[in-house]
Amino acid sequence: MKMASISVVLACLMALASVGGIAARPSKKPTDPSFQLEQVVPKRFGDWQELPETSSQVVNPQTQQLLDKLYSQILSRTYVNSDGYRIMLSLAYGDDQRGGLAAHKPEVCYPAQGFTLQGLFDAVVATPYGDIAARRLATTLGPRKEPVTYWFNVGDTQVRTKMQQRIVEMRLGFAGVIPDGLLFRVSSIDDQTQRAWKEQDAFVRDLLKAVSAKERARLSGLQAPA
After folding, report:
1. Cα–Cα distances in angstroms (integers) from residue 43 to residues 37, 39, 79, 210, in the given order
2. Which of 79, 93, 192, 220 allows an S-S link to 48, with CB 3.0 to 4.6 Å?
């Protein structure tokens, strides 16, 4: 009964979105020219510093052709702290997330590249600025074990489910704004999954602390203070 009710609600929302799309076709892109991932994300912060590109082990689970179609900006870096622990950061920003351009989630892309998905969990990344609604993956590729933490923002709002995404897209659509999206992903090669997620959370907190309130809101989906 519960699943049936959810399906009915979702169908109604999609129908409403269709009607709304006729009444108010989005035409304005929200892109802020000053929002450039390469400049926003520092190469050194807290106890972390970027490794040379030749040392990067970031796995890109999509072809370059598909990435160019889906996203307008991509940033991939590997960071290391004073203990030698490495975190791989991958950010993908798309200024148009409608229809076929909607961001591909790691739980789809990783298996498509040959990874085995051992687990997928809803999670909360606690930060001094609020809690981020995230998801965690446990993935393997042969002997490589790569725990992943990620979240997805549409506009200025965190979304975890398809229904949440549709609601935000409708809100933006009625305002005449084309929905943009940011996929924020961190991962590490570590056979101790819980340790990996703990290190990833620490990395996220340090990164958010190192950027401005406006940039923090864009990266995290947490609202900037008024």
Report:
1. 11, 9, 8, 10
2. 79
Residue 152 tokens, joined: 């997805």
Domain membership of residue 226 (yes or no) is: no
Distance (Å, rounded) from C-alpha 151 to C-alpha 124? 10
Take residue 147 and report the two structure tokens written for it. Answer: 């725990």
Identify whether 132 is part of a domain: yes
Q: How many domains does the chain have?
A: 1
CA–chain centroid gap for 55, Å, is 23
Paired tokens of 225: 């203070």
**225 in a structural domain:** no
For 65, the domain range is 2-220
> Closest Cα to residue 52, out of 83, 25, 86?
86
How far apart are the C-alpha atoms of 81 and 91, rounded to whole Å? Answer: 20
Tell me which DSSP letter residue 129 carries. T
Using CA atoms, how far residue 19 sits from 29, 96, 176, in Å, is 21, 20, 14
Mean of all residue pLDDT scores within the chain:
81
Supply the pTM of this predicted model: 0.79
pLDDT in tens, 42-62: 999 999 999 987 555 565 655
Residue 60 confidence (pLDDT) = 61
Identify whether 42 is part of a domain.
yes
* pLDDT tens track for 178-202: 778 889 999 999 999 999 999 999 9
**What does the DSSP 8-state code read for residue 60?**
-
* Dihedral pair phi/psi, residue 142, rounded to 5°: 65, -130
